[in-house]
Structure formats: structure tokens, C-alpha cells
DNA sequence: TGGAGCTCCAGTCGCGAAAC
DNA sequence: GTTTCGCGACTGGAGCTCCA
């Protein structure tokens, strides 16, 4: 026997989801449940006549993926159907409870016995936890020997992440300064200049900060939501450029064979564009590899921002897992929850602010409707709606066209394929010049920002950027040095070429 | 049939919305 | 205005589905 519960269309938006869920939950008779959510829950959980489901029906939920409208099939075997029929007729269930009952049947996982998995139990526990947080905060001052490990002391690794009293004032300053910087950045609308890409200036300011935030939040390898969002934007744009369009410039010519009629300045511009494209492609490939499927499947608009706790826990979870290898995920979460309660409020505020700041950056990045043409000076701007619609059209076209090529299931292959689309960077003097040219643009933009903001945070943040810039200058300098005939090309071109590609990824302004 | 991709699960906190 | 609840975020693995 097969019961089919069909939905007309896939709930794509939160509102649709909610409506669909409400339709599933909505009882036959609406009046009793209209008292309110709380009452409805109470009637569900506290009803003495509610039949206890010890062995839920074996339910298979199939989702048809080949059509736009997805339907859900609920299947029950004949044997199970018999069991269902043999069961004594339960006493009448209140209408309000029926709605919830239907919901539970529909989503309950059949054959897993998880004593804690009851939603009600979880919520009760959650509720209790919330109360205990307040109590813990009140008692924290007297419990200055809160422990994490068995020795009774906070683990040294974690102490690195917990601010001491001496550090708190500096942290406060950082928060205030960063807030000022954020406000300033929000107010400041970059002025377009001929020949300068708006996108260049945006990325020169934001990407280093984003990388910094990612480093703060998750260490070097962890995928952080914010980073993915940033990079997927870049990825989309690269795909857009690579797939083509009327306004897309052709791929740069091989570096070793410049057009004879080009002036040095023109060649330099081409090189710079090539470096930009290369960096974007590398980024796109990199994050295509790291991006989670779950994140991919969700619309950016629907994604909820990661909270301060999320950022903090994503970083600390690694440490906890490293220190306690045998711990299950749930145990690690418990420890993280305990630790989160123990860290100072100031530090929590810092993580909260980092979350907010990251969201602001991403929003600004998303709100940027600028489109850059390779090899041209034109910047095209427009209303957000218009740009968004155009982007959606392009993505639709890309999706259609990309069906001609089978997707690479192996991410490594995907990355290699993406990298193969761009010519390898050459290591001639003009390439070094192009890198220096971009570096100069980036530093100029940074200088303007610092001068405009005059904040301490901007200055200190720029120092690390300058250090990165110095590092990024090494290979171009080595390239130039390698031109000296007496050296006989001591450094292999392949090495230099690979390093150029890496620098293109990290280089500010790309 | 094997591999790749997708979904769900665990426990926790934060946020937004609804209820009171 | 306060309280309560649902949902989403974090990660890694297990299990399921789909496709060649």
C-alpha cells in the first residue's frame, strides 16, 4: 500500500517552507489549535490519550529530483500495515494533537533508537540550559577555577583564545575601532575612476580582511561559511567570464608572444588583466573544491549568517577534537557549550562582532553590482534589481551551457580542469612588471582607505597587508634577478610560474 | 556494482518570529 | 516588552540514492 503525500511545488523560500509545514501541521478542524503554538504543543505532549508510537511505521520518503515539482511518497509495507491495523484503536485524539501527530509520523526516522532524539526532550533540555546559563553567569565570578580538562585548569591551548584582563582593554579598542571602520566602509561609496576597476578596489580592501577573519575563525583549513560565500561570488564571475558572453574579452594571448603593435603600457595592462583572471580562476577552483554540497544547494539569500558562537566553535571544535580524539561529536559540542559559558563576556562580544563584520562585508560584496570587462576601462553599474536579474539570466545560461560538459565528480580533477583553462603564467620581466603594477594599485587603494578612516584599526590592519605585499614582491624580484645572464636561469621557470600562480591568489587587489 | 554525491544526524547557541 | 519556540549554523561520518 502506498500513500502519497504530494506537494505542488518544492518549498524554496522560508515562507514557502513555513507554509508547507503549516499545511502539514494544520489540523482538520482549525479552531482548537488556534489558541497558540504553546497550547498546541501542550495538547500534543500532555494529552493522556495520545497513542505512544514505539515502533513507528517504516516510512520511505522519496524525492523526485528529475522534475521541478517534487513529491514525497510515504510507503508502508503490507506487513507493517497489518501491524498498524492490529493495534488497538486508540482513543480519540484531540484535533490539535492530530496535526502534530501527523508531522511526527512524517518526519520521524524509523529505525533508530535515540533516547535523546525526541524533539520535546531536546527542547526541554534546551530550555533548561538557557536558565542555567543565567545562573552560571551569576556564579561565574565566584567560580574562577572553572575547569575544562581533568587537571582542574583551563587547557593551555584554550587559554590562548581566552582574553586575559590585560588584553580586554585592547580588545575593546579593537572592537570600537573596527566598528568605526565598518561604519566608515559602509558610508564610503568608492568613486569610479577611469581605467581603474571598482572591483579591484573592493577586493583589495575586503579580501585580505576576509582572509584574516577566516584565519581567526577557523584556522587555515576549515571551511567557513563566509569564505565560501565570498569565493563563490568570485567563482560565479569567473565562470561567467569563462563561459563567455558578448561583453567578455577573449583570453589573453600567451605571454611569450605579445602582439607586436602593442605598446609597453598596453602589454602591461594585458598582463595585469591576465594576472587578475588567473587569480580569480585559482580562487574559483580552490573554493569549488572546498565548498560543501549543502552550502551549494542553498541560495545565498537564504543562508543565515554564522553567529559568533558558530565562528568560535568552528575554531575550537578542531582543538577539542585534537585533544580528545575519542570524543563523539555530541560530546565535543557539550564541551564547547561549557567552554563558551566560561569565556569572558568581552570575548563573546568580540566573536559576535566578528560575525557581524563578516556579514557586513559579504553583504557589501553581494551588493556590488559592478561588472568588469577584461582589457577595457569600462565599468558597468546599475540598479541592484537590474544587476541581479542580469546575473540570474547569465547563471541560467551558464547552467544550460554547462550541461554540454559532464561535471567532474572528482574535485581535484575539477580544479585541474579549471586551472587548465588559463594559460600558465610566464616568468618574463613584463610579468614581474604586471605584478608590481597591481601591487601598486592595491597599495594605493589601501593608502586612500587609511587616510580616509584615520583609525588605528585600519593602520594596524594594513601592516599585515604590507607584509604580505612584501612577500608577494619576492618572486617578481626574483624573476627580474633571473634575467641576469650570469645566473643562467638558476631558478627553473616552472617553479617561478607556479609561485606566480600562488601569488596571484594571495596578492592583494586580485 | 562501485563510486560519487546528497541528506541526515548528533549537541549547542543565536537569531527571528510568534505568542503572551 | 518579555517569553517561547523553530530554525539555521557549525563538522564529520553514516547511510541512502543515483548513475555509468
UniProtKB/TrEMBL annotation:
Which ranges form a coiled coil? none
Q: Please note every region of biased composition (Acidic residues).
A: 171-183
This protein's GO cellular component annotations are: nucleus
User: Region Disordered: which residues?
Assistant: 1-200, 237-264, 280-311
Read off the InterPro entries from this record. HMG_box_dom, HMG_box_dom_sf, HMGXB4
According to the UniProt entry, its GO molecular function terms are: DNA binding
- The superkingdom listed in its UniProt entry is Eukaryota
Q: Where is the HMG box domain?
A: 302-370
What ranges does the record list as Basic residues composition bias?
Answer: 119-131, 283-292
Biased region (Polar residues) positions are 1-15, 144-153
Which ranges does the entry annotate as DNA-binding region? 302-370
Q: Which Pfam families match?
A: HMG_box (PF00505)
- The name under which this protein is listed is HMG box domain-containing protein
Q: Which organism is it from?
A: Ciona intestinalis (Transparent sea squirt)
Amino acid at each position: 500500500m502506498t500513500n502519497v503525500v504530494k506537494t505542488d511545488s518544492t518549498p524554496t523560500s522560508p515562507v514557502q517552507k513555513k507554509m508547507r509545514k503549516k499545511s502539514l501541521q494544520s489540523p482538520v478542524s482549525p479552531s482548537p489549535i488556534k489558541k497558540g503554538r504553546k497550547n498546541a504543543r501542550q495538547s500534543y505532549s500532555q494529552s493522556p490519550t495520545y497513542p505512544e508510537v514505539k515502533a513507528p511505521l517504516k516510512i520511505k520518503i522519496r524525492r523526485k529530483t528529475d522534475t521541478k515539482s517534487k513529491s514525497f511518497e510515504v510507503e508502508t509495507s503490507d506487513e507493517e500495515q497489518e501491524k498498524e491495523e492490529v493495534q488497538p484503536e486508540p482513543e480519540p485524539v484531540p484535533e490539535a494533537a492530530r496535526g502534530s501527530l501527523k508531522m511526527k509520523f512524517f518526519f520521524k526516522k524509523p529505525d533508530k533508537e535515540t533516547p535523546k532524539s525526541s524533539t520535546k526532550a531536546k527542547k526541554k533540555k534546551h530550555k533548561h540550559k538557557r536558565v542555567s546559563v543565567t545562573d552560571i553567569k551569576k556564579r561565574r565570578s565566584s567560580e574562577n577555577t572553572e575547569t575544562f580538562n581533568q587537571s582542574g585548569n583551563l587547557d593551555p591551548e584554550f587559554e590562548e583564545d581566552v582574553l586575559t584582563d590585560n588584553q580586554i582593554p585592547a580588545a575593546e579598542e579593537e572592537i570600537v575601532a573596527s566598528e568605526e571602520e565598518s561604519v566608515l566602509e559602509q558610508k564610503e561609496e568608492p568613486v569610479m575612476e577611469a581605467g581603474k576597476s571598482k572591483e579591484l578596489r573592493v577586493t583589495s580592501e575586503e579580501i585580505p580582511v576576509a582572509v584574516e577573519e577566516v584565519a581567526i575563525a577557523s584556522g587555515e583549513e576549515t571551511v567557513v561559511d563566509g569564505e565560501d560565500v565570498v569565493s563563490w561570488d568570485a567563482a560565479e564571475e569567473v565562470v561567467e567570464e569563462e563561459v563567455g558572453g558578448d561583453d567578455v574579452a577573449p583570453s589573453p594571448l600567451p605571454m611569450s608572444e605579445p602582439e607586436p603593435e602593442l605598446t609597453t603600457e598596453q602589454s602591461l595592462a594585458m598582463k595585469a588583466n591576465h594576472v587578475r583572471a588567473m587569480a580569480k580562476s585559482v580562487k574559483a577552483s580552490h573554493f569549488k573544491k572546498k565548498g560543501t554540497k549543502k552550502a551549494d544547494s542553498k541560495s545565498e539569500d537564504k543562508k543565515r549568517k554564522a553567529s559568533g558562537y558558530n565562528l568560535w566553535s568552528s575554531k575550537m571544535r578542531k582543538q577539542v577534537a585534537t585533544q580528545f580524539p575519542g570524543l563523539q561529536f555530541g560530546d565535543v559540542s557539550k564541551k564547547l557549550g561549557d567552554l563558551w559559558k566560561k569565556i569572558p563576556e568581552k570575548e563573546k562580544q568580540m566573536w559576535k562582532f566578528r560575525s557581524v563584520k563578516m556579514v557586513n562585508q559579504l553583504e557589501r560584496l553581494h551588493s556590488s553590482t559592478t561588472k568588469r570587462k577584461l582589457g577595457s576601462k569600462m565599468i558597468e553599474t546599475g540598479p541592484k534589481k537590474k544587476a541581479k536579474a542580469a546575473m540570474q539570466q547569465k547563471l541560467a545560461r551558464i547552467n544550460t551551457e554547462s550541461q554540454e560538459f559532464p561535471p567532474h565528480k572528482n574535485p581535484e580533477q575539477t580544479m585541474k580542469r579549471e586551472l587548465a583553462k588559463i594559460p600558465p603564467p610566464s616568468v618574463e620581466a613584463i610579468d614581474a612588471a604586471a605584478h608590481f603594477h597591481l601591487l601598486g594599485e592595491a597599495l594605493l587603494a589601501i593608502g586612500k582607505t587609511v587616510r580616509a578612516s584615520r583609525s588605528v584599526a585600519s593602520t594596524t590592519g594594513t601592516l599585515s597587508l604590507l607584509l604580505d605585499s612584501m612577500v608577494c614582491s619576492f618572486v617578481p624580484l626574483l624573476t627580474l634577478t633571473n634575467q641576469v645572464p650570469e645566473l643562467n636561469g638558476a631558478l627553473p621557470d616552472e617553479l617561478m610560474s607556479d609561485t606566480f600562480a600562488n601569488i596571484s591568489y594571495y596578492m592583494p587587489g586580485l
